[in-house]
Amino acid sequence: QVQLAEYGVGLVQPGGSLRLSCTASEIIFSIDIMSWYRQAPGTERELVALLRSDGSRKYADSVKDRFTISRDNAKNRVYLQMNSLRHEDTAVYYCHVNRGGLRYWGQGTQVTVSS
Fold it and tell me: Residue 5, class by beta-carbon neighbours within 10 Å (0-12 exposed, 13-18 middle, 19+ buried)?
């Protein structure tokens, strides 16, 4: 079973940047689909960014041109670079791996955008 651990500084001002990282407990396979989700209080968990095994990416409309997902297979890591952060980006962010239909979640990390 893959274990995922997210890391990222939790508080940032509007307009600022933050990079989240997620380290997997084992090798990230080329077939794995890596993604980031987020959940704000009182809302459903939503897909933020997804990186397929062929290198293609998908982003939520609300984060397009501001967020970038990437992976480093040598370090078993996936990243989420977040720029031009807004108040509405405040949420718990979760790392997620889909390995052939098996889904694994990190414990989540709080991101707060506030002045």
Answer: middle
Q: Report long-range pairs for 43-51 (Cβ below 8 Å, ≥24 apart).
A: 43/91, 45/94, 48/80, 48/93, 49/80, 51/78
**106 vs 90: CA distance, rounded Å:** 18
Question: 4 exposed, middle or buried (CB, 10 Å; 0-12, 13-18, 19+)?
Answer: buried
Say what the pLDDT of residue 26 is.
Answer: 81
The pLDDT tens digits for 39-94 are 999 999 999 999 998 889 999 999 999 999 999 888 889 999 999 999 999 999 99
Residues 75 and 95: their CA atoms lie apart, in Å, by 15
* Angle at alpha carbon of residue 39, lines to 48 and 32, rounded to 5°: 45
